[in-house]
Amino acid sequence: MRVRLASHPDFRALGADLYHDLALAPWEAVLGTTVRVHGIDGDLNVKIPPGTANGQRLRLRGRGLPKPKSEERGDFYVVADIQVPTHASADEKELWEQLSRKSTFKPRG
To answer: Which of 43, 52, 67, 70 would be a feasible disulfide site paired with 29, CB 3.0-4.6 Å?
Structure first.
């Protein structure tokens, strides 16, 4: 028997592994947080470590799809998708400006 999987709006499959793009605010990526995501067996709590980079994959072992002819399951990967606000209030702009003046982070060296 052959099974064909339809695409899912929340995750994509690669073999038995599932991938979920998780939108994060910049401060969530910098400071770390715990986020609840939907898995195939229900909700999962995913710990986002401080300093998470855009595109970084966080693996939850054995939370993917069943592997053919096996008792094992694939993994569930949460892929960090750091979102940047497109509009900011005057107060938010001031906070970003304060951060830019005080931060020692230099993305271009």
So the answer is: 52
